[in-house]
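# nightly structure sweep
# worker-07 picked up a monomer target from the shared queue
# config: single-sequence mode, recycle default, output format = structure tokens
# input follows
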Amino acid sequence: MNQKIFFAPLAITILFSHLATNTMELESTKNPQKEVNKDIKKILTKTIATQFKHALLNHTFQERKARKHVGPLQITSLGIQKEKMFTRHNGTYDIVPNIGYDYGMWETASISKIVQQTELTKRKRNKKENYINLLYGIGEGKSNFRVCCAKKHYAVNNNQKLTFIFVNDTIQTCSFHSKMLQCALSHDHQWCALTSQDNDKGFINLFSLESKTIPYSFELQHPISALCSAHKSALFAVCTAKGNLAFVTPGSISCEYAGETVDIHTHIEFSPDDNYLITYGGNVLRLCNLNQSLESMECMVCSLLKTDHFIRKAIFTPNGKLILIALANGEFLFCDGVTAHILDYYPATWRVKKMISVDNQAPLMLCSIKNKLLLSLDPARRTDSDSDVYTFVVRKLTNGRFLTAHNFYSHNPRAMGLTEDERSVVFTHDDDSVSLLHLYNDQDLQDVAFIEEIADVRQLLEMFKFCQLYKTQQKHLKNLNATALVTAIRDYIRAIAPTNVTSQ
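# output follows
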């Protein structure tokens, strides 16, 4: 078992040992009890609250399943909602429901994306034509920015010749003889990178939003297969069809040639702190350490991970500590975000085996760091034989253990988002309707608040005993009895907490 899973209990044991062997020293201090509280309360609070929140979700599932409810989670339909723009650091955008929440994460199924169209009037012929919006950029105090191409070029073999860039409604035309171009916006809203291809060579052009020109263009020896921008600097990373990795900034380009050792990588992503980068394609994932200067790329440390099945998706968790990989056989891998080593966690799946060959879709994935949760949604459509398959699943982020699930049969949502407070999940459906899931109800949140904000060390130690007993049962029983832990902690809180804290 991985040592990280038991870190908190081990830390508490060490603190208790330290307390027992240094009693005389503590007694000589001005306020020994205060020193003890300061040392151990934080760890106790985090351990108990996290385990309690996980047990609450599993308890709900067990309770509803016992009553033979197909949908163990209460999803509230909100109907058709007004939409707003949810922007990310690199200028990519999502159209999300405007229901009064800020979003921490949002995921949209690529196969289900509704292509947003813009109708423009050609000056010469006074004829209106439809264009596809490829990229939006909206920033406070910044120029509104939009990249689009003619729909007729977009629809034919993903080829396009003309791209229109709009800066505050001013049109700039860029001509490309290329396949479907990729574009990304720098975090500071100053540069847009656009890739193109000609005669089996790749080109990356940097468009300045200030001058509305392309002052920098770079040529690569192979077509570009993936593009992304950094979170904290005007840095772009690209992959080529031969496995090469290049970094582009205004005025300079650095390349790392991987030769023939790496398959074509079609996805690329920076870690949240920009210190690491992952690229992947086929069954190979590459993790690069970017802590050193990009000018000396021959010193770059890269780790390769080969999987038994093709990689459908790989993402960093918001804190960068883990890389979550969804494989084509429906399984997840949990990898270290620094070494890319596969961690010894429990197996987890995002699609059941009988549905592996449904399509080539990737799951939607959200991570709640605050609650230590991994939320996944399989966007594939269902048939009558799949009515008992759970498609939205909530698991522990630390080990992939199942907590709860929901079946949207027969049409799954095309997108989902985690609210910024990490308490709710929002779904959008093919008919543009919206539904809302609260992970915890009001009473759950009050009990968690008591653990996190009110309970003293003695009370926390008492609740920690319940958690330890729960872990002991977990080792010997195949099915977790989460209800026992939830009941024990709730009864204890009701017995000791003030009435105005636990009552509605």
